[in-house]
């Protein structure tokens, strides 16, 4: 590359000689035509500004307040041969990867043609900071299988050597979200408790209960939809979606509440299955039998505990051995639910013209338990004789028709039979509109049935249908709420969805609407078709131990009994399948360290330990043994889960959190707040003590995981009077944080701590006062150190505590570094850049910070321009979003520019970038700038030559100064000869100190050699004045870098000269310190002609993603 381009440049010089004299040739070409001798003497050096590479007039952006113009009126020298410029290694450990930082061993022979001259400044780090074009291609082709799949199943074959080919997600809204949500929402409560709830609460209050619960889940679903559209939905279920979007503290709290709720739901489903089995299918299978009539409930509870434990063990074994079979049978379980519900509607329609025969035996207005007698009469006619019926025997304890031992209520009241299912046309709905709550042990009575109100014998109470628990509106809310949970089933399949952002909101909302309509219609149908005392009969004692909802169904009660049993078993299996995976995902995130053991499992990723813990927790629910006692517990956990989801969404919106940018157009923070309020109200309505316990658990989880967001460390420079030199750095920091979060302000005072302690205290007070003025929340830390660079390194390493550790450093630009002979300022700057890179921290360098707006200014228009050259974590995208939260920048528009090379498809890049920004939920104007691989211009060569001449000249000047000081030191102490090796020492030199007890012996030869060294050094400085610059001696790697800086600057100034702020990728710093000054020069060239520039260097980790 070098030879060809030099020849092209020389030809251009010959051609333009006469044009320059006439004033028609462009400025770079005229520079090339200047005789070389004219550049050798320092006074002849002109004042240069950045000139475009192409032949365009400069006037349109030369007027930007003359900012950052370059003054080259100092003498310059030729560069040292072999001057290398290596950038910091991408791993932050300073490892040299190769001799030439831009060529590997296989490509070294390609010469200059290999280099991408337009990105030479960023070349070495392209492996970890890729070009935008390559990054966009990967992100746009993203499938959500990549995130979270490994957390659940190791995609490896049995030998572990070959990875399975993952199928692309293909499920749509119907199969992927709608039907799974329907299956999870419909469950045991619908079949076992909804009729009882309607009987106790009445139709109107039942409507209210269903409305409250469904509104709660609907509002939570809207919040979930906002989360689902807040970036690409990762695979791994609702926990991954929430934690990646809302942060670890909300994600962990929601995740654990959801886990505990799902685990207790598994216990509830198992108890429901056992209740169906022992009450309606095979009552003979009971192990424990009541010793007397009043011991029936305790015997039933013991049966539930034994059978529940057996069922739990069997289900856990099934999940452990073959979880894939559970998923295969999911459609069968869903079919059972659908068929059962359809049979209810069919039975309700049939009851209009042909109600089923289920007579109820009433004694007065009291309901009798029908399973203990056959004939509903006091006497029966047998062989033409009136004899005592079974009912008479039970109440009078005699087969004779004697009344001396009879129950008084039995004698005074008539026995009658009424229809248990009068049908929809009977008008029974009027009687069932109002509530009829009962105390525990109270007899079920029919309100309008004639009766004589006398006391009966207590030992005959078992003959009546009794209320087994005290009921109230609050109790029924707690029992019913589990029947509306299951709204997260769709998000649990996020990895299988073709378009999760669309399917999750649409499918879940449709499922809730469908299930809500089913619940409302069932409440209405039950109230219109079934007698009130039958509705209040929880276990169907009045209808001969039939499932109450089954008595209404068509063609047979067994349709619902069998269907509900299998669907309940299936729901229990799915709960035991999902809960351990949820716990495994939480454990693998390591947000709660003591759960780490549950992140491990079998070789194929099955969560063995998590399954064991889930089974143990579910066993606690089964030992409670009552469906009505377990339901409020899981209601608490689900309500707490939904409360956290709504709270998080509302808080994120109100605080304008950077990673909260949902696209769901029907979302509003007020809906989340309303949903949170309903969740809180339902918790305390159903059980205030359970609510307090659940809130305490969730609050402890939240505080345990709590993690503060991104923090800034602002490094301030103080002047001689200990005043802040650039207070606008604090202004910028306050605007970046928008008044939220904490900021650490650090500064370094050079000296001895014992001697300068007072100065440090005064400096700290000065900074605190300035922080109050600029309204910066945080604290400051002033460090005293012998060297400024060491003090800054200490601040970077040690500032902050725990969650308050900073992850971004704000550093001021070293103004006037060219004019100063003292290299400490720019050496400190570059050392700080290296420290932040090694510490994997992001770095922000505001240039021309004095031109940045104050907090009292307002930009009513203008642009914030982002020049995205390479991708290093997305900090460039996040910063404009943060700034626009502040009132100063709020009305500015965001424009994103990226650079396309010759081999890039710029049209496709623009489409990909627009898609990427859509996934990031960022509104910005997109533009792709094409940079052609043009020849390196004469101006670039001249600029590089003068940079190298100036660099070498300053080295020689420092050398002569050092020599003079050394000579004086030699006169003072002849033993200091050991210091001769430090040729470029300054106050910041990091060489090892020389021990004072070194003994040196002077000889005539050593004295002569020392004189020769000093003479050669001075001679080389004299040669500096008469050096003849030639293009042959210009370091070609520096030419390439200068070409990158000039070309990029040309494009940036052309497009963004009127921008309010320009954000730009900061190239990597040099590792070889000989190239430090060149690096500073490249940054100056890159940012010339721009009023406000923010150089950004990412910390190597993603700060803004398509997930959050």
From TrEMBL:
<dbReference type="GO" id="GO:0045202">
    <property type="term" value="C:synapse"/>
</dbReference>
<keyword id="KW-1003">Cell membrane</keyword>
<keyword id="KW-0769">Symport</keyword>
<feature type="region of interest" description="Disordered">
    <location>
        <begin position="1"/>
        <end position="27"/>
    </location>
</feature>
<dbReference type="GO" id="GO:0055064">
    <property type="term" value="P:chloride ion homeostasis"/>
</dbReference>
<feature type="domain" description="Amino acid permease/ SLC12A">
    <location>
        <begin position="458"/>
        <end position="710"/>
    </location>
</feature>
<feature type="transmembrane region" description="Helical">
    <location>
        <begin position="304"/>
        <end position="323"/>
    </location>
</feature>
<feature type="transmembrane region" description="Helical">
    <location>
        <begin position="208"/>
        <end position="233"/>
    </location>
</feature>
<keyword id="KW-0813">Transport</keyword>
<feature type="domain" description="SLC12A transporter C-terminal">
    <location>
        <begin position="727"/>
        <end position="844"/>
    </location>
</feature>
<feature type="transmembrane region" description="Helical">
    <location>
        <begin position="509"/>
        <end position="535"/>
    </location>
</feature>
<keyword id="KW-0868">Chloride</keyword>
<keyword id="KW-0597">Phosphoprotein</keyword>
<keyword id="KW-0325">Glycoprotein</keyword>
<dbReference type="InterPro" id="IPR000622">
    <property type="entry name" value="KCC1"/>
</dbReference>
<feature type="transmembrane region" description="Helical">
    <location>
        <begin position="463"/>
        <end position="489"/>
    </location>
</feature>
<dbReference type="InterPro" id="IPR018491">
    <property type="entry name" value="SLC12_C"/>
</dbReference>
<keyword id="KW-0406">Ion transport</keyword>
<keyword id="KW-0630">Potassium</keyword>
<keyword id="KW-0812">Transmembrane</keyword>
<dbReference type="GO" id="GO:0055075">
    <property type="term" value="P:potassium ion homeostasis"/>
</dbReference>
<dbReference type="InterPro" id="IPR004841">
    <property type="entry name" value="AA-permease/SLC12A_dom"/>
</dbReference>
<keyword id="KW-0472">Membrane</keyword>
<comment type="similarity">
    <text>Belongs to the SLC12A transporter family. K/Cl co-transporter subfamily.</text>
</comment>
<feature type="transmembrane region" description="Helical">
    <location>
        <begin position="633"/>
        <end position="654"/>
    </location>
</feature>
<dbReference type="GO" id="GO:0007268">
    <property type="term" value="P:chemical synaptic transmission"/>
</dbReference>
<feature type="domain" description="Amino acid permease/ SLC12A">
    <location>
        <begin position="177"/>
        <end position="352"/>
    </location>
</feature>
<dbReference type="InterPro" id="IPR004842">
    <property type="entry name" value="SLC12A_fam"/>
</dbReference>
<dbReference type="Pfam" id="PF00324">
    <property type="entry name" value="AA_permease"/>
</dbReference>
<feature type="transmembrane region" description="Helical">
    <location>
        <begin position="177"/>
        <end position="196"/>
    </location>
</feature>
<feature type="transmembrane region" description="Helical">
    <location>
        <begin position="609"/>
        <end position="627"/>
    </location>
</feature>
<feature type="region of interest" description="Disordered">
    <location>
        <begin position="78"/>
        <end position="109"/>
    </location>
</feature>
<feature type="domain" description="SLC12A transporter C-terminal">
    <location>
        <begin position="857"/>
        <end position="1108"/>
    </location>
</feature>
<dbReference type="Pfam" id="PF03522">
    <property type="entry name" value="SLC12"/>
</dbReference>
<dbReference type="InterPro" id="IPR000076">
    <property type="entry name" value="KCL_cotranspt"/>
</dbReference>
<protein>
    <submittedName>
        <fullName>Solute carrier family 12 member 4</fullName>
    </submittedName>
</protein>
<feature type="transmembrane region" description="Helical">
    <location>
        <begin position="666"/>
        <end position="683"/>
    </location>
</feature>
<dbReference type="GO" id="GO:1990573">
    <property type="term" value="P:potassium ion import across plasma membrane"/>
</dbReference>
<dbReference type="GO" id="GO:0005886">
    <property type="term" value="C:plasma membrane"/>
</dbReference>
<dbReference type="GO" id="GO:0015379">
    <property type="term" value="F:potassium:chloride symporter activity"/>
</dbReference>
<feature type="transmembrane region" description="Helical">
    <location>
        <begin position="253"/>
        <end position="283"/>
    </location>
</feature>
<keyword id="KW-0633">Potassium transport</keyword>
